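From the pipeline queue, job 12 of 40. The input is one protein chain; the requested action is below.

Action: predict structure.
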Amino acid sequence: MWMSLFGLWQHSRAGRKRDELHACRAQPCRNFNILGLVTIIDPRDGREKVILSNFASGTTGNLVLVDPDAADEAARAGESIPLPGDEGAWALLTLNDGRLLVGTCPRFGYLHSLDLRSRTWAEPLRDPHELYIWNLAPGSDGMVYGGTWPGCALLRYDPAAHRLDNLGCASDNPDNAYTRTVYALPGRLLIVCGYADPHLTVWDLGTGEHRRFGKPGATVRQVNARFVCLETGGDLEFYDAHTLEPLADDLRDALTPQRRSVLPSANWSVGLRDGRLFVVRGQEYAIAAAPGRPQTQPALTPIPTERPGTRIHTLISDTQGRLWGSSAFGQTIFRYDPASSEVWNSQVVCDAGGEVYGMAFVGGRLFMAAYAGGDHIVYDPTQPWNQIDNVNPRALEPVRPALIRPSGRSVIGPDGAFWTGWMAAYGMYGGGLSRVDPVAGVVQCWRDPIPAQAIIGLTAGAHCLYFITGGQANGLPEKTEPFHCVAWSVEGRILHERVYEAGAHLRAICATPAGVALAVDRRLELLDPQTLEVLSAMTLPAACQTVLAWGDDDLAIFCGAQVLRAQPATGRLTPVCDLPGDVYAATFTPAGDLYFAHERDLYRLPAGAG
């Protein structure tokens, strides 16, 4: 039977219906992922508070209110306010009438309005075509404006009428999907558009007319009431904030210096009224001294309130049968011991934000590959945690800026090295492979083994590696063209490749002693490991999500609403049971137990039950 780790999900081998499932009582993957900070004077008690916007992957996000000068235990416990909907929010803006505006992501792009005195939410607003609201800026006309994804739109919110309008695309390039940041100017807005064709847009609030602004490749350095500063290739240009005419004077001395915390690699910071700096670093926060005071590294304090259960992104087993995994957002990992039910959740594993895709053990150490910094990380579970000093876990050489997302995941190759398949940086099609020597820590990288295609799956055979490519890209629309299945030598060259016709989607790959299993849409092919010729094929009831080797001869196929046991040699396909939903993270333990994750929950099929 399938067994939920924290619930009572039971099935016959033929599979029972999902309406008989019992809700899980807990989730092993738990973390905060703070995407924004604002300060308020709380109308309830007149005290200064910091509001943290927490993204909870796979569930509903929340706001965490922290009193930086709490005098008693009750106040230090913080306050959690669930969002009315969506997983979290980048965009926070306080209004003078005691309201907090929240722009959410990634499923709905809600505009939420919270009355801070009553702690009540107004009716959620949203545009049906937009899923992200990136930031909110108060316009000079009394309205509030925000940027979006995927429509590269400009949204306008009327605080008096509580109405949200879509003013249309802010870019003249229809391939752009992001209005990533909106800045308010007198009578205008300055908008950052990307990523197919990154550029700046100036939007006239009176006429709605918009045009490109600045030199090609210009980025916003600073916007204030006096001037706009753009940077292009290291050169600074200044424009009058009212007229947007170029200023002849070099005003770099007038730029507001960015205050840096003495706390390394802080994710977010906001200034307090007395000049101190409130800093968030992963699962913790600290308060740095005001300028002019002695600057020492401030003490880190856990973010108050309980870490929520979050979506499981990656799942592996160690040699002892303990499960290790990563959160789908927030750059943390977890460990679950089935024998004792002990759960451990980490701090952030590296300085860049994002999530761990690739995980594998070599010699008792956990090697990882993470988005969005193209990071390689190694962690020794037997040693004390000290990521802040890059001791344990330790960051190795990254593959950024060219490669940033480990979309192909990671495996241990036949050479004993840690291999990862990657997707290119934002605004670029392409991918690559990296190899980490687990002893020396030396990193090798191969860019675009198949030009302008991302690596979306990677597996290791007895003598070489195999990968598949796709048309996915960061910040660009997915493209359709002939994609490849490739046999790759440990020396770094293509041995064989099989090219599929345009329109075919290569979905999952797994090397077995019998051959290389490849899921192509609703077809499962078994390929010869030497030539990549098709040895056999079978039709699946739905598109495949995940494939694992089940012993030497069989495969576990997570396919639509079922898990199937496939025997490529005979063509037999046996349903095992229904699934609660899509599964992209699954692993076998050394004892043969099959574990898989759906959203926040973890499930188990005991050895021999399938």
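Job complete. The two ends are 8 Å apart (CA to CA).
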